Amino acid sequence: MTGESRIERIYEQVVRRNPGEVEFHQAVKEVIETLGPVLVKHPEYADQKIIERICEPERQIIFRVPWVDDRGEVQIDRGFRVQFNSVLGPYKGGLRFHPSVYLGIIKFLGFEQIFKNALTGMPIGGAKGGSDFDPKNRSDAEVMRFCQSFMTELHRHLGEYTDVPAGDIGVGAREIGYLFGQYKRMTNRYESAVLTGKSPHWGGSLVRREATGYGTVYFVDEMLKARGQSIEGHSCVVSGSGNVAIYAMEKLQRLRGSVIACSDSGGVIYHKSGIDLDLVKRLKEVERRRIAEYAQHHRDAKYIPGGSIWDIPCEIALPCATQNELDEAAARRLVANGCLAVAEGANMPTTPAGVRVFQEAGIAYGPGKAANAGGVATSALEMQQNASRDTWSFEHTEERLQEIMSGIHRNCHEAAEEFGSPGNYVLGANIVGFRRVAEAMLAFGVI
Ligand code: NDP
Q1: Ligand 1 pocket by C-beta < 6 Å: which residues?
Q2: Which of 265, 416, 260, 417 is nearest to 339 (CA)?
Q3: Tell me: the pLDDT tens digits for 46-76?
């Protein structure tokens, strides 16, 4: 059987065994369709059914999360943790709280996380979790009660050598604090390294908050440098206005890019003279408001309710909100408007047809599992600091992050060349991540 036909068969089996989980199917397809040449070079991977084993999570946990809201009404949400692969280290990957969460979303994210974590070169396996709980318009007390109920079940599956969650959409420092407090209470252990993304006041790492956004910008900078270009002086748009988007904008501005637009799920802010990042931080991080309010503070900024940020002409585009937010039509508009580079701060934000448009146009395109790996890499640095009971300076930690991102870029770039597809970071990232996991799986035998 050829590499390609074997992969086709594996994909059909994944779809059959995981009905209705369309995002998971999409993530699997995007990875395994690039692995045909690797199976040809390494027939032992096919003999030992490495791909088939990777596509099946090691463990999936689904649980009830009951809690009482401020009006005294009982609420029931659903919790998930999918522990996908632990050959490289303890399971590692964020928790997402968003009403769209179901098993297929958590499995797509967990699957991506295996390869992303492998790409960082650090000793971490892949997992993801979360809940369909919607934190919007909930009081602090409600969020706390939800987090306590969620951790009351989840704690038995975690541990610094077992599984170490972090944040994702809807889970920031506030939620990590409540989750850690409940873990400590349930276990009677101050086990700092059981969660990352903690506040630097009590065991968190400096730069973790900034890491995913900064890392994405380092990655785009490396892609541009490989083409003799740079960020300086280029117009940039960044979708979203959450954790990843805010710190991507900050680093773009520091590297003298001109950030002209950002968004949330309600609409887009277009501010030609440059986004006022202090205002975005205040509105989103402190006051938890909608991005629409930005326009009330700047008369020359325009709010476009329900608009597409990809309609705004730019040279650098960073999707930093959510999956499948950039489709084929949007990709065509970006290319037609002269976009030079796209790097994904979010996970799988570009649809497969959108990715093809970027690749055919020959623009620099950095897939999420490479471009946004700075977040989990800095989580691993947080685990290192916790293990040695040490605290590193901002400068030192950021330097480590920058080295890691440039190493990821280099490895992806070289693998793409080795497999005859120079400049194809999708292929490069999948192959580098997969080979590292596959080698460990071979060494461990059939487990
Ligand atoms: P946040 O919750 O901080 O921010 C999410 C942002 O995306 C908000 O502006 C939100 O708008 C917008 N958004 C979320 N869902 C949707 C949707 N369905 N449609 C349109 N807009 C939406 O999350 P993060 O910044 O942490 O995460 C953003 C992306 O980055 C995700 O894909 C995540 O998986 C990925 N990522 C995050 C990492 C991290 O370290 N945090 C690490 C690696 C990847 P609104 O408030 O209106 O919902």
Answers
A1: 100, 167-170, 212, 240-245, 264-266, 320-322, 345-347, 372, 375
A2: 260
A3: 999 999 999 999 999 999 999 999 999 999 9
**pLDDT greater than 80 at residue 374:** yes
Q: How confident is the model at residue 387 (pLDDT cuts 50, 70, 90)?
A: very high
Which domains are assigned to the chain?
A: 3-54 (no CATH), 59-190 (3.40.50.10860), 209-371 (3.40.50.720)
| Most informative mutation of 264, 281, 404 for ligand 1 (most atoms within 8 A of CB) | 264
Asked about 128 being catalytic, the answer comes back as yes
| Cα distance between residue 57 and residue 54, in whole Å | 7
- Give residue 430's Cα distance to chain centre: 15
Give residue for tokens 């979010």: 346
Quickly state the pLDDT bin for 90 (edges 50, 70, 90).
very high
Mean pLDDT of the chain: 97
- Nearest Cα neighbor of 398 from 420, 374, 376 is 374
Length of the chain (residues): 447
